[in-house]
Amino acid sequence: MKRILIIEDEKDLAELLAFNLEKEGFETRCAFDGISGLAAARSESPDLVVLDLMLPGILGTEVCKALRKEPATARTPVLMVTAKSDEIDRVVGFEVGADDYIVKPFSMRELTLRIKAILRRSEVVQTPDSPMVTLGEITIDTERHRVVSSSVDIDLTSTEFKLLRYLAERRGRVISRDQLLQDVWSYHEVGDTRTVDTHITRLRNKLGAPGEQIKTVRGFGYKIEEN
């Protein structure tokens, strides 16, 4: 049973989310401020965190950054929830390492679908026939969920790892943003393509110079090439 940690300061909403997610077969735990939420994430190792942006004590962005800095929680998927819908808030959420973003008010169906999609992305698919993907100075170990760029270990979120692997396994092919949303994010309806752009930028930055192998095809999408 997958464990979901809900960090949300509106107690009634947190308990409603917990009730509905438990009906979907998840185990849940609620925290009502950033400090206790961060402590719960550290001690309980949830499979996913539903994280409100505006929290007392510590903002959701700071909680997310703290999770990403610690080895035990660096790859824990985070779905950021907020009442704000400005683009800058979405971008900030992704830049601090959130895997996805949902804006209040939202339906339980949408939340559940987003959570299930993130959990599918976070599952490491074993490929014993070809566990290593090498692309110039980038090496992807699909069995160990490990990426090395210019001889340096790179810490990626589950979404970033899946995005890099997806592009690397299709090297030279141009992949549209909509296709990436469908295959990497598991969105079966039209989504916000800026989600892709923000993750690509973050991925390039983490990879350093070899990240320039990820090329933008203006007006369409991305491809990855060997230098």
Q: What would you note in describing this structure?
A:
The chain is α/β, with parallel strands linked by helices and 227 residues long. It is built from eight helices and twelve strands. The chain has helices at residues 11-23, 34-44, 60-69, 87-95, 108-122, 158-168, 177-183, 194-207, and strands spanning 3-7, 27-31, 48-52, 78-82, 100-103, 132-135, 138-141, 146-149, 152-154, 175-176, 214-217, 221-224. Helix 6 (158-168) crosses helix 8 (194-207). The longest helix has 15 residues, at 108-122. The model has no long low-confidence stretch (mean pLDDT 88).
Secondary-structure element sequence? EHEHEHEHEHEEEEHEHHEE
Task: Give the tally of β-strands.
Answer: 12
Mean of residue pLDDT? 88
Categorize the overall geometry. Answer: globular
- SS-based structural class? alpha/beta
Lateral strand order in the biggest sheet: 2-1-3-4-5
Identify the CATH homologous superfamily of the largest domain.
Response regulator
Main sheet makeup = 5 strands, parallel
The CATH class designation of the largest domain is Alpha Beta
Q: What is the helical fraction, as a range of percent?
A: 25-40%
Q: CATH fold name of the largest domain, please?
A: Rossmann fold
Percentage of residues in strands:
15-25%
* End-to-end gap: 43 Å
